[in-house]
Specification:
Layout (H helix, E strand, L loop, with lengths): L3 H14 L7 H10 L9 H19 L16
Length: 78
């Protein structure tokens, strides 16, 4: 799902304060460029907003204990 760079950033952020660092417009542009994805500059704020919403949803899901035997016990990453 993520590359080593993103996994390391999430791990470091979680270790530092229990939360993943919020993306910024600059980080969105950088990650999109690394992935070979291009979008008009006016779309970047919308992408950023969607990423923040997804990050909030993941944080909410992590609060629930999941039965490791269930299909819903996948690991969510933001």
């Amino acid at each position: 799902m993520f590359g080593a760079r993103e996994e390391m950033a999430v791990t470091q952020a979680e270790a530092a304060g229990g939360k993943a660092a919020r993306p910024t417009e600059d980080s969105v542009r950088t990650r999109m460029a690394e992935a070979g994805v291009s979008a008009p500059a006016e779309c970047v704020p919308g992408v950023l907003s969607n990423l923040i919403v997804l990050q909030d949803h993941v944080a909410t899901l992590r609060a629930f204990a999941l039965d490791p035997r269930s299909a819903s016990a996948m690991r969510f990453e933001a």
